[in-house]
Amino acid sequence: MTDPFDLSGKVAVITGSSRGIGRAIAEQLAARGARVVVSSRKQDVCDEVAGSINCAHGNGTALAIAASISSKEALQDLVQRTRAELGPVDILICNAASNPHYGSLDTIDDAMFRKTLDNNILSNHWLIQLALPDMRAKKDGAIVVISSIGGLRGSSVLGAYTITKAADIQLVRNYAVENGKHGIRVNGIAPGLVKTDFARALYENPEAAKAAVARTPMGRLGVPDDIAGAAVFLASPGASWLTGQTLVVDGGTTV
Known about the structure:
Rossmann fold
C-alpha cells in the first residue's frame, strides 16, 4: 500500500523556518522524504538548522537560503536559487510573519500597520505568485499558509496581526479557486497559542498562560510539532482532494 504521506522527491520551501513552527515543519517534511529549503532573515541560523536536518536525513536533504519576506527581490532570489539547486518548488509553506505592535489599534502608527500588512499578507501573495508557474506546468503543487485563530475573532491587543491573519484565510480561498484547475491545492492552518519565541509575550505571564490552558479542552498549550503534523498532511497526497480550507489546530480553544 502506498504511503499517503510520502513526500519523497518533493522540493519544499518553508519561510520562517529557523525556529519554532517553521523549523518543526521543515524537520517533519524532511522526515517524510522531502528536500527542504530553510529560510529566514539570517544566513547563519538557517545554516545551523539545515545542517541539523542534513545530519539526521543525509546530505542534500536541506538547503539554507536567507531571505527577508519584506523584500520582493529577496523572495524572487529564494525561489530562483531553489529551482537552480534543487528543482522547481513542489511545496510552499508561507510561515514567516510579523507582529510589531501589542496594544489597541488606537495606538498603532501607520508605519507599523503597513509593515504588518506587507509581511503577513503581501509577502505571502508574492511567494505564491513566484511558485505558481512551475506548479501549473507540472499540474501539481501544495501551498500552505500559516494563519492563526486570531483571524477568526477579535482581539483587544493584537488587532493588526489578527486582521492580517483573517486576510490570509481569504487569500487561501481565492488562490484555491483560481488554481484547482491546475491541480494545485492551497490551504491554511490556524494555530492556537503555541509555545514559540514569537508568542512568548502571550504565555510567559503565568496568569495569562493559566487562563489560556483553562479555555483549551485538551488542557495544554500547543508545541511546534502539533502544527508541523498538520502541515505534512496538507502537503501530502493524503490531502489530494482538500483545497481552500484553513485547518484550525488549537486543542479545541475555539470550540
